[in-house]
TrEMBL record:
<dbReference type="InterPro" id="IPR005950">
    <property type="entry name" value="ModA"/>
</dbReference>
<protein>
    <submittedName>
        <fullName>Molybdate ABC transporter substrate-binding protein</fullName>
    </submittedName>
</protein>
<dbReference type="InterPro" id="IPR044084">
    <property type="entry name" value="AvModA-like_subst-bd"/>
</dbReference>
<keyword id="KW-0479">Metal-binding</keyword>
<dbReference type="InterPro" id="IPR050682">
    <property type="entry name" value="ModA/WtpA"/>
</dbReference>
<comment type="similarity">
    <text>Belongs to the bacterial solute-binding protein ModA family.</text>
</comment>
<dbReference type="Pfam" id="PF13531">
    <property type="entry name" value="SBP_bac_11"/>
</dbReference>
<keyword id="KW-0732">Signal</keyword>
Amino acid sequence: MHNRKTFIILLPIIFVFLFIVGCNNNHEQNSNSAELQIAAASDLTLAFTELGKMFEEETGTKVTFSFGSTGQLADQIANGAPFDVFAAANVKFVDDLKAKGHVMPDSQKMYALGRIGIATVKDSSLKVTNLEDLLKPEVKKIAIANPDHAPYGLAAKQAFQAVGIWDEIETKLVYGRNISDTLTFIETGNVEAGIIALSLVKEEDVHFSLIESQLHEPIKQSIAVINGTEQERTAKEFIKFILGPTGQPVMERYGFSLPKENE
């Protein structure tokens, strides 16, 4: 009888203990199962794929990327696409989303400056080292990202205009949806040359010549956390990771530089 009374007295304590343990386990499971959905400009494909794996190893957070043209991704976010972070190839798109209340203002950071250059396939006999070389008759088609929504395409257009050959070049242009599409046009031989991001260059695949940065507006790249995310803390951790001592050397290795705004 004594043992039974003791058990009845201890029963509520046991229930409370089990409830606390269950809550802790659920919290632990939720932490371990955290996943970030990141909308990222196509020029980040190589760098962010590598950094995503490093971040996952360091934090246990799974990172899923949707790479595309900055303008199209911005439209998706404005229409409610469930992303946690937006890494744009042009600060203007993040500024526009911030003005409309779609991103957290205090989370926005400049994370990189991009560069463009002229690319031809490795086995091409064409000698193309500057923009004027693209006027050669043997260069029949030139790929650039669509300047209407892709920042690297806009930079290419500005460079052509700066050297005064836009009107002559325009009839040769083939537009990719984004800078990765543009590279695909080159690699598959559908065009003789193209303007791509330095960050996507693989030396074994293409010949590449940098275009002077003075010929176009700086490609200032900005990143921010999306309003309404359930992963705010982890999203901010990812941005800090990109800007930190682990992320920046990787970004630099892929041809990006850190904007002075973050120095």
